[in-house]
Amino acid sequence: MKFFLISLLTSFSVYYANCQTNSAKRISPLTDTEFEREFQFETQKGKLHFNHDGTFNITNEEGTQKGKISLDQYFEIHKLYFYHQNANLFLFLELTDGIDSYVQVNCVSLKDLSTTWTHVSAGLNLTESVIEDSKAYLAHINFVGCLDLNTGTTLWSLENLYNSFKITYFKQIELTESSVKFKYGTKSLDFNKISGERLN
């Protein structure tokens, strides 16, 4: 319960990503509305209000549409990164019930606010993901891997990282022409971007 109260007082960061190029990078923080219990950000379709329970609405000159992504019972959003690409909104969420945590990725269609797919992995300490073309590189305490943004399936991954490497947090994901580096401290776990083969 103590952790839950602390998590409610933690600053929530929401970022907008420019996906006109083949990789997505955040531009700047947006308004923090933690104490109103919602995130606010702009998409090409209008202003989107996203609540900690997974309900959201989008408002423009045509009116307001409502949507919802499914979360496990009693869990709330602790951290949210989002990327806007074509007609889709990709949401990278860390969720907690005050004791346990997990990471969920959703693809939401901006046409009707329906959820196209959901990807779930056990863990916490979600790092800002990186998108390149139709792939997303995801990292948290228990998982590094590559997701197919068309289907939400895992293309390759390495899991149980804490048990194997005692890694608690990845500070950055860096892409090169042929590899992806999941950086922690002064080290990194390096993989071939396509095959997922370990390079170090």
Structure notes:
The protein has 200 residues and is mostly beta strands. The protein has helices spanning 2-9, 161-165; strands at 15-18, 23-29, 38-43, 46-51, 55-60, 63-68, 76-85, 88-96, 101-109, 115-122, 130-132, 135-140, 143-148, 154-159, 172-175, 179-184, 187-192. The chain has a single domain (2-192), classed as Lipocalin, CATH 2.40.128.630. Helices cover 6% and strands 54% of the residues. It has a six-stranded antiparallel β-sheet with strand order 1-2-11-12-13-14, with no helix packed on it. It is globular and about 55 Å long.
Shape: globular
Structural class: mainly beta
What count of domains describes the coordinates?
1
What percent of residues adopt helix (DSSP H or I)? under 10%
- Contiguous low-pLDDT stretches (5 residues minimum) are 1-36
Order of helices and strands: HEEEEEEEEEEEEEEHEEE
The N- and C-terminal alpha carbons lie at a distance of 40 Å
